[in-house]
Amino acid sequence: MMKNNMLPLAGCVGMALALASCQGTDREKPTVCTGLGATYSVTAAEIDVLADSHIDLADVFCDNEGLSQVRYDIHNGAGHAHEASGEDDHGLVLHSGTEWSVYELIDVSGTEASTDLHVEVPNTARGVWHFIVNVLDAAGNVSTYNTDIHVENTYMPEFTLTSVGGEDPNMWHGEPTWSAGSAVVVSGSVTDEDGIASAELSLVDEGTELAVWGPVSLTEFDAFTDTVEVPANVSGEFHFEMTATCNAGVSMETGFHVEVE
Amino acid sequence: MVMAWPCGLAVSTDAAGAFRVSCPHGIDSLTFSCVGFETQTVSAPLEHIDVWMRELEVMLGQAKVSATRFPEWEAQILARPDLMQALDATPGLQSLDLGPGMVQPVIRGLYGSRVAVLEDGVPQRGGRWGSDHGVLVAPELQVASAWVPGGGHVWMGPEAVGGGLRFESPSRQNSPITTTRYGAVLRAGSPMAGVHALHIASSADVHWHAGLSVVGFGSNQVPQRRFSYLGRVYDLETAALPNTAGRSGHAVLGVERVTGNGRNVAWSMRASDVTQGLFPGIIGLPLQGDLAPNDGLLEVRLPMQHASRVSTMLRWTGNENPWNGGWEYKVSGSWNQRREFAPPHAHGWGPLPESDLSLSLEEWTAFSEARLRGAHGSVGAQAEGQWVTTSGWEFLIPSHQRMRMSVMGEAVLAKSTLSARLDVVQSSQQGHAEPSFNAEGSQVGIDVRANAFDTLVPGGMVSWQRPLQLRQAGRTGTVALVAYGRVPSNHEWGANGIHHGSFRFEQGNPNLGTEWALEGRAMVQDQSDAMGWRWNGQGFLAFHKGFISITPSAQFAPISHAGQIYRFVANDAFRVGMEGGVGYHAERHAWTMTGSLLGQWDVATGLGLPFTSPAQARWCWSSTVKEGLEVELACRTIAPAHLTARNEASTPGAALADMAITHTTTRGRWVLEIQNAFNSAWLDHVSAYRALGLVAQGRWIQLRFTADLKKGLRTQQQQNQRKIFS
User: Fold this and answer.
1) Is residue B538 part of a domain?
2) Residue among A9, A103, A175 whose CB faces B288 most closely
3) Among the listed ranges A73-87, B270-284, B382-396, B555-569, which one has the minimum average pLDDT value?
4) How many angstroms away from the CA of B301 is the closest CA of chain A?
5) Nearest CA in chain B to A6
6) Which of B247, B143, B145 is nearest to B195 (CA)?
7) What is the DSSP string of B271-304?
């Protein structure tokens, strides 16, 4: 009896599965088919650019049935990494002008289309920016490509840290953790071709945006060493801030995230 | 069983309760008896007679026993006290991982506005369209919970496409004795502690109950240290999802009495409040620093959500009589509020907002039902209204209102039941526009997110159900053929923004119409022997015309942290699935295997529907070590999920080991449980966290104590002891 009842159901299920699996649709994702060796392409290993200049990012996109839209996203690389970017190996990067970003949507069509995005790099930017390109085809399949844009800056002062708490920050993986009540020795330099007029260090609570240590004015610029006294009664998320102004009057701000335990 | 007098001839009714009987010299009376119902005698019956059987309340020694019946034949009891565990252990059901404060049931791969959740027959609302907007419910303060598979149930409302859950409060009928239930739970791993107490006082004519439950929970433990979101990679400093702690509280209160003229009048209310941190990745793109662990075990920081709900219901009945159960009326109202708070920097471009309130949904609802029960079926009407106001700086859905009017009836025929319901839904929404900004923070135009509209849409259902009484004793079942229509939710009509809970930019379509479905269901179970083999199986097959599903579009959202636009699109779909179990029960041991299989396809593309649950099976061995002490070892195996929607990644399979030791004493029941004993890292295919590559719950160990103090029981025991010793 049971067998007889379940047979039609099983037949229907099998038939439906067969019907459903016979349907076809475009599941092939669009690709970047820019030729090898392109310098200002998302396929480049990395892109070097000077602040206060411009770049033209050019790529060619392909799809088996039809392209729809390309999304350009350039954002500062502080505070996160990207898949397969190998960014963990960078160590500490001191960013400046992190607010600068680019977001652009470009409609494309056909099975092959080229795009050219003109980007002005501001003179306040320094560090690593992530360059992400997403491409969509007409069916909704999406692909993601990314690389890094290294922005060099000769316009504003530059901090270089050689030692933080006895460690070379270029060897860091992730963000540093300091102990409450500890003293952290910071060594480095701050330079500018016009000369440095002033420079300060401070440790700022990210929650209250108030300094819990400093600001301390540097007296030596080419090779400074200062001791950060982390208060004993604090913990949480902090930012080690470094600011400087050159003799031409150009100011800059940089730093890194610190967790205090 | 029906006995005709004076000839004494006995006949059995069929499964629907119909019978024919005659005596050579006429009938002067008929006696009706049925297990679980009071025996009734009708004198001088007419040629056709309908008899209304009352449910039996019996005293078994010191315990008074009463059964809870649900209106649907296909309803299946959920026995476990923890709803999330009950869902995850029941084939065909699953819970979305929203934290202990809220539960999002998934029935046969569908959830949200396609799963009805009814408390005492009243549908629970409260922005339930979102995958992250779980149900505020406390099963420990209810007396019965059940799930109903499939769509087209006449009394459950049009939302029951995947099925529904029913929760029953204590009442004079289902809780006829005075009792106090209480318990506590303590969990390590994903830390949690909670207590609950429910007092039920019942006499012949008067009943009241009051209950309270409070739970605090820490952040979710996961065996994972790294995840990615929109291509960005983040590290988890500890093996916990930061900021997923919270607290929840539920309270219930109810009174009921029989009036002088025999009417039953009941009033009840429930209140729930949940505060819960939101994983920072849920609000836009986090910085690595946002993912720092919380300082305190129960600390909640931004982003967070706060959900509150207060509901009340008045129910009264007419006089019962031998021919029908009389009219029953329900009137209910509720206030729901869901608020999400996020740091202003999550706002995106443009001026920073002055408040942390990113999204607020405030909803008032009203529900009423009138139902006349009879021996040959029942008729009734339902009216439902929702008035929803939305605000906050992250627009997702406009303020809207929705009214539903339904008339329904079910006819119990000789061998089957026919049911039908006609729905009319009127809905309107307000328009919404806001300035749009570019990356430099300059206003570049006006972003029209919603246009006002007003619509009137029909829906309804027709079903035919037939109970099966197979030849072999103890084998029963049901077959059902159902056609039903579901009117789109206001989220599907009006959404146009980032939905934090799903990590997507969701876009509704005001032109969507009713989705229709034709569904066949069958259920068979064999429980003929207390010992030996037992099995059960059920399956369904459904064709959906214009099934509304979230579908990736060929466009990106105009704001940087939103990604691709997902649109609600009506596609034809086909769904099929089955659940079942088989077990062997010996005197002290039992071996069981339960499992489920589900397929859901978009017919036009042949792709799967989003979040289709993979096949899974639960293998369990339980043993009674000695009287009152039971050990259970279980393994949940989940198949790889290869049936995926467009751009949806497949999910690898997993095997999870669970263990439970239950010790039942005269004072109460202790249960020690270990879930995911080997702390396996596994991806839950139906969880929104999977989109971030975040694995599901790691190992936890829980100790639960529950007790039931029945009034008079102790006194009776003491008297017995005195007799023994005197």
Assistant:
1) yes
2) A175
3) A73-87
4) 11
5) B522
6) B247
7) EEEEEEE--GGGSSPPPGGGGPPPSSTT---SSE
Reported as a pLDDT band with limits 50, 70 and 90, residue B716 is very low
Chain A interface, mutation test: which of B287, B469, B556, B648, most A Cβ atoms within 10 Å? Answer: B556
- Tokens standing for residue B9: 């001839």
Decide if A1 and B470 are in contact by the 8 Å CB cutoff: yes
Give residue-wise pLDDT tens across range B460-503. 999 999 988 776 667 888 999 999 999 999 999 999 988 877 77
Strongest mean pLDDT among A8-12, A107-111, B9-13, B445-449: A107-111
* pLDDT tens digit sequence for B331-348: 999 999 999 998 876 677
Residue A77 lies in a domain: yes
Q: Closest Cα partner for B499 from B241, B653, B278, B201?
A: B278
Q: What is the pTM of this model?
A: 0.84
Counting the structural domains of chain A, the total is 2
Within-domain flag for B360: no
B231 contacts on A by Cβ (under 8 Å): 82-83, 132, 144, 146
Q: Which residue has the tokens 């719950």?
A: B697
3-state secondary structure B680-710: CCCCCCCCHHHHHCCCCCCCEEEEEEEEEEE
Does residue A12 sit within a domain? Answer: no
CA separation for the pair B66, B53 (Å, rounded): 14
Distance CA B656, CA B671 (A): 19
Model ipTM over 0.85: no
Residue B454 lies in a domain: no
Question: Of the ranges B10-14, B314-318, B420-424, which one carries the lowest mean pLDDT score?
Answer: B10-14
Contacts of A207 in chain B (CB under 8 A): none
Check CB contact of A11 with chain B, cutoff 8 Å.
no
Distances (CA, A) of B537 to A171, B465, B540: 60, 17, 11
Here the CATH number for the domain that contains residue A169 is 2.60.40.10
Q: Is the pLDDT of residue B633 over 90?
A: yes
- What distance in Å separates the CA atoms of residue B279 and residue B501, rounded to the nearest whole number? 10
Residues 98-117 of A with CB under 8 A from B: 101-103, 105
